[in-house]
């Protein structure tokens, strides 16, 4: 398996990393095509005067820089059948999937090899937990990967990698228990079809369901083609980030500090001592100087600037725009290109409010406030049919309180306060932690 190539440009000028002659022809030819040419027209409409605004880093749910909707209304999202809303109450066990329901997860075609009955039961429960987190929590899990700083990722972005996991869990061919060498929890072949992994017996015997689940996901990502080496970037490898998104509900922090420049998915420059202002200037220089390359820039592991996507393809990039410029341009594109699926990101996080039904985006409001997002989310939760899972994201974070049993969401309250959420979470832990894994999040942050 080839090692991800790491490049550093030959000479450093005041604002630019230049040179980069080490890139292969194949890498240089991996171009955006006409995307950036389209972008120049799209990005300049009505927003040009704000291009040079200084960087503004606003915390989640601080609406000081958010243009509030003058009048909240559901006209964009509520044109849906007005059907009964049958949802779980937060302590109601009715119709909750039981822990040992392995239908379509580890069926009879999967070879469970050399495991005791207790070990097999732990493995099955761990797979169910991982399946619930990846499939039932697909929007949240995908966002965790999107936020992750990835190394040895074959040029693939986070959402693509998360999507690969959604096709995994019915393909298990074998899970083998074995007495592995010290400090080895499990191992798997890289780039295989189906899932084949070996897991250490002591690790299974001595760990919790969610910990075992995180290691299973780590190994599945090896099966899907991602490897890692014992380098300083090990914690940012795809498998390690996949493991962290299961166990910690957030990615591992970036190993790199300072500025990192990428061309067409490959790191082309690294300046750990640079300031954010120098990083943005260099990023803008590279974007302007090399319009046929896909330029991406990171600072302390976070993406820099505004990215505009049409139908999943990046068509615009403005490294120096602030959040206000980003949401204004995003709204303009949404209004003027209704046939496109418009998605927008600022500093690596989605812009605005997105409404999801069963994992599919059904509404998008780039300029709504957090309060408008909560109100609309509550309305949809109250009016959606019982077989519709409503999820709401505001600037890349889930809205409200979510309660999970064994990785599956069983309760959702968009407008609860943090205090009320914590009380309910504690009640669930006290009542049910002996029989299931209880997880609780508030605005996408784990609170237990």
Describe the structure.
A hairpin with a 2-residue loop joins strand 13 and strand 14. The two termini are 40 Å apart. The N terminus is likely disordered. Helix 4 packs antiparallel against helix 5. The protein has 448 residues and is of the alpha+beta class. The strands form six sheets. The chain has a four-stranded mixed β-sheet with strand order 3-4-6-5. It has a four-stranded antiparallel β-sheet with strand order 8-7-9-10, covered by helices on one side. The protein has a four-stranded antiparallel β-sheet with strand order 12-11-13-14. Helix content is 31%, strand content 21%. It has two domains: 209 residues, no CATH class; 144 residues, Collagenase (Catalytic Domain). It is built from twelve helices and 22 strands. The protein is globular and about 60 Å long.
**Tally of distinct domains:** 2
- Low-confidence segments, ≥5 residues, pLDDT <50? 1-105
Helix content: 25-40%
Rg, rounded, reads 23 Å
Number of beta-strand segments: 22
User: Helix count, per DSSP?
Assistant: 12
Query: What coarse outline follows from CA principal-axis ratios?
Result: globular
What kind of sheet is the major sheet? 4 strands, mixed
Name the structural class: alpha+beta
Gap between N and C termini: 40 Å
Mean pLDDT: 75
* Biggest sheet strand line-up: 3-4-6-5
Percentage of β-strand residues: 15-25%
């Amino acid at each position: 398996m080839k090692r991800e190539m790491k490049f550093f440009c030959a000479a450093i000028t005041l604002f630019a990393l230049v040179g980069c002659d080490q890139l292969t022809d194949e890498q240089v030819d991996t171009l955006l095509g006409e995307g950036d040419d389209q972008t120049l027209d799209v990005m300049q409409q009505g927003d040009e005067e704000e291009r040079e605004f200084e960087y503004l880093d606003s915390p989640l749910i601080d609406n000081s820089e958010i243009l509030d909707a003058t009048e909240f209304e559901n006209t964009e999202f509520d044109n849906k059948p007005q059907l009964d809303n049958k949802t779980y109450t937060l302590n109601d066990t009715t119709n909750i999937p039981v822990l040992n329901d392995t239908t379509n997860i580890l069926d009879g075609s999967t070879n469970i090899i050399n495991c005791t009955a207790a070990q097999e039961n732990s493995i099955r429960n761990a797979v169910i937990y991982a399946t619930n987190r990846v499939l039932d929590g697909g929007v949240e899990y995908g966002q965790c990967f999107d936020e992750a700083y990835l190394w040895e990722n074959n040029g693939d972005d986070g959402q693509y990698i998360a999507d690969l996991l959604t096709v995994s869990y019915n393909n298990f061919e074998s899970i083998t228990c074995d007495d592995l060498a010290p400090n080895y929890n499990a191992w798997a072949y890289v780039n295989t079809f189906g899932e084949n992994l070996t897991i250490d017996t002591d690790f299974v015997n001595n760990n919790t369901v969610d910990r075992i689940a995180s290691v299973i996901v780590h190994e599945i990502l090896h099966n899907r083609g991602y490897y890692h080496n014992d380098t300083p970037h090990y914690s940012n490898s795809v498998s390690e980030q996949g493991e962290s998104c299961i166990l910690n509900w957030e990615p591992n922090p970036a190993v790199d500090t300072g500025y990192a420049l990428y061309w067409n998915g490959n790191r082309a420059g690294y300046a750990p001592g640079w300031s954010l202002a120098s990083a943005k200037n260099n990023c803008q220089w590279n974007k302007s100087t090399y319009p046929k390359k896909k330029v991406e820039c990171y600072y302390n592991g976070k993406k820099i600037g505004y990215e505009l996507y049409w139908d999943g393809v990046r068509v615009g990039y403005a490294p120096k725009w602030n959040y206000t410029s980003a949401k204004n341009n995003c709204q303009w594109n949404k209004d003027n290109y209704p046939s496109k699926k418009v998605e927008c990101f600022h500093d690596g996080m989605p812009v605005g409010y997105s409404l999801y039904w069963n994992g599919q985006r059904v509404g998008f409001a780039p300029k709504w406030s957090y309060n408008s997002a909560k109100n609309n989310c509550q309305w949809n939760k109250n009016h959606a049919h019982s077989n519709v899972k409503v999820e709401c994201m505001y600037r890349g974070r889930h809205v409200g309180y979510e309660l999970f049993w064994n990785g599956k969401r069983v309760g959702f309250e968009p407008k609860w306060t943090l205090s009320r959420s914590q009380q309910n979470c504690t009640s669930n832990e006290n009542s049910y932690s002996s029989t299931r894994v209880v997880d609780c999040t508030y605005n996408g942050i784990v609170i237990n």
